[in-house]
Amino acid sequence: MRSARSLEGCRYRSSFHCKSVSAIEDLIGELTKLPGIGPKTATRLTYYLLKQSNERADRLAKAVSAVAEQIKPCDMCGNFTETSPCAICADPRRDSGVVCVVEEASDIGAIERTGEYDGLYHVLGGHLSPLDGVGPDDLRLDSLLTRLGNGVDVREVIIATNPSMEGEATATYVGRLLADKGVRVTRIALGLPVGGDLEYADGVTIAQAILARREVPN
Question: Which residues on neighbouring strands pair with residue 130, listed in sequence order?
């Protein structure tokens, strides 16, 4: 028979093992809540982190905590920033007469990298999706109307929602919402990517490219 000390040691090791497994499972569970990360990827990331030094794990934890505590939406456009208004809204060199409407704050970076746009932005915070229970009241549409009615001379609103079914529905809704606001409402052109081959493009993409055609300069 096992001695009392031996049994106590077994219970201790079992308890330690359960706590360790629980911590690992908790981290895997939290990682799977992130977009694009499934159970396999979450498990791989978890065991990668377990191999790192405590200092690196602490830096990661502090970085995540800092983002949660210090980053907030800009009061004007909804972009994520440490100060409000954000750097774009506060920049006097930007054209305040043009507002580009996007679904998410992450879309702003994609447009900024082109270097071709110098107006302001408005982040909706998502798109219309009745199946997911997301309606007009769940988007930052009221604040968009407020921006257009607070005396700022906005000449044009560019709708740059994603070319998905939900994005198109959102663009249509926003266009109708702004129809009587006295501003020009445009939609970003959709079509063939630069460098793409026509024969490999799908029918919807080709149709959008034809609809968004423009004059060839002489």
Answer: none
pTM above 0.85, yes or no: no
3-state secondary structure of 131: helix
- Whether 114 and 164 map to the same domain: the answer is yes
How open is the CA angle 215-197-158, to the nearest 5 degrees? Answer: 45
d(CA 167, CA 102): 10
> Any idea how long the chain is?
218
- pLDDT, tens digit, for every residue of 10-52? 454 445 455 556 889 999 999 999 999 999 999 999 999 999 9
Confirm if 122 and 100 have CB atoms less than 8 A apart: yes
What token pair was written down for 37? Answer: 């990360």
Q: 145: domain range?
A: 80-187
